[in-house]
């Protein structure tokens, strides 16, 4: 699944990951900006909440990627089940219409 599509789906469910560099505000800091840091934003009661997840090192980014992978698998499974249900519905509807038409006398 394409990353952009997956990101939109995650946003639809109120979850987004992003990497951010932060300025500390100290006048003589020579290492600004600091980071990268990983954040998740999510919607709660109509408001966006940003949650600090930690320094964006390889292990944390791997965890994020694992979550995204699992969400992607769920979406594929959902689409497959949705298609199966739709096909079953169409078949039942077709059978019902056939039964109704066979029961009528055509002049």
Structure characterization notes:
The chain is α+β, with helices and mostly antiparallel strands. It has one domain (3-103). Helices cover 52% and strands 26% of the residues. The chain has two helices and three strands; from the N terminus they run αβββα. It has a three-stranded antiparallel β-sheet with strand order 1-2-3. 1% of the residues are buried.
Element layout with pairings:
Elements lengths: L2 H10 L2 E8 L11 E11 L2 E9 L2 H46 L4
Antiparallel strand pairs: 1-2, 2-3
State the gist of this model.
By secondary structure, the chain is of the alpha+beta class.
Give the DSSP E fraction (strand runs of 2 or more residues). Answer: 25-35%
Radius of gyration: 25 Å
Report the helical percentage: 40-55%
Write down the secondary-structure element order.
HEEEH
Strand arrangement within the widest β-sheet reads: 1-2-3
The total of beta strands comes to 3
Average pLDDT rating: 82
Discrete helix count: 2
Gross morphology: rod-shaped
Quickly give the structural class. alpha+beta
* Total number of domains: 1
| Unreliable parts | none
The quaternary organization reads as single chain
Largest sheet: 3 strands, antiparallel
Between the first and last Cα atoms, what is the distance in angstroms? 54 Å
